Amino acid sequence: MNRSPLDLPDDRLASIKTDGSRSYIFPAEVRGFFHRYRQVVQAILMLIFLVLPWIEIDGQQAVLMNIPDRHFSFFGLTFLAHDGPLIFFVLALLTLSLAFVTSVWGRVWCGWACPQTVFIESVFRRIEKWIEGNHLAQRQLNQAPWGILKIGKKSLKWFLFFIASLIITHSFLAYFVGTHELFHMIRQPPKENWTSFLVMVYVTLLILFDFGWFREQFCIIACPYGRFQSVLMDQHTINILYDQKRGEPRKGQVPEGQKAGDCINCYRCVQVCPTGVDIRRGVQLECIACTACIDACDEIMEKTKKPKGLIRYASEITLSGQKSRLFRPRNWVYLSLIVLTVTALGISTAHRHPIQIILVRAKDVPYRSVPLDNGQTGWLNHFTLHIGNQGKLPVNLSWQIEEPWKSLGVTVTTSQNQITLNTDERKTMHFFVKFPSDAFKGKSSHYLAFIREHGARFGF
After folding, report:
1. 251-294 confidence digits (pLDDT tens)
2. 158 close to 150: Cβ distance less than 8 angstroms
3. Distance (Å, whole) CA 270 – CA 303
4. Is the Cβ–Cβ distance between 168 and 124 less than 8 Å?
5. Alpha-carbon gap, residue 378 to 372, rounded angstroms
């Protein structure tokens, strides 16, 4: 059987030449049902990414992950350092959700919502097409010798790539430093914020390299998701598949005496693939389920007066003529774990105390002997109190000695007897505890306890 020169190699990736160097992929343009809806979904996702940091809820940034200050805000909820264990539930929820989605719909995340796919398809390839033309013009320009025209187009393209990378990076940075702080840093010289500036430069160059040049190589080489998808998928998983029974034998490969299938062997599905995959070879690690091959094949089927769906969303079990089951034991396990995780996260969040108190010994001698007003000898301890308000309402806090401490002669000295904490505000206070030597006879240590009363008063 004669092999077509358009066939992809069997011994290596389509993006790799025989000498091991990279063969750059120029995917053809595609139109169709899924392409239109992917554009809408990707536009919404980009809008959310760019706008979300600028939205405020109850005076706080909607999503803020201030790692240096260990301060996190998510849609009106404030989380501080001591809420770190809640991150386990968040990570578990994301992992289990991805596992469930993959088990049901395959790599729909990669093709529809992954930032790699969204920004490359919606931003960088659009810039490329606007400057260099369609895929044929891009390939021709890439193979042409260097000249004024090629240098000009490549320079303009990479300049716009750089601007796009800067916008993405600044929006990304706003999630970690806050929009107000970001504006403040932009107006300052880099030396005033070296850490943030260097992070921004690194992320910008990384995005520029990945989205502008590395592209499908990240999905094939670096991304681990494609490598463990086979563990999460089975014969009932809905994926992008080629109907081999209907399509084979394809045109040009029809044995004598057999009827040709619906596949006319036009290689249109290969030409539009951004990772260089021939979907007719089955599910492959390189496939990101972007649906480009579905739209391309449907367009050819329409032109040849044949039914659409030669390449479509389906499961291996349905292609074999059997009925696919959406809820299988593994999916029930995933759903159960997701429900448990969401419940645990909700309960943990609901039972968080709105007032955070951290009491530590001050950087001073552990204790010192001091004279008391009655002429006796007592002891003095120096403490530092860190108080934070994670609630949605301001609170007023006051000091008060509770019994039996008061009758034992314990006194507290501080610069402020009452403090007001606004929403998402934190304060640090120093105070001294003085008590007579005979106040705690027979005991070597005592605990200092804080008791919240009526939402506004603390005593110890």
Report:
1. 888 888 888 999 999 999 999 999 999 999 988 889 999 999 99
2. no
3. 18
4. no
5. 6
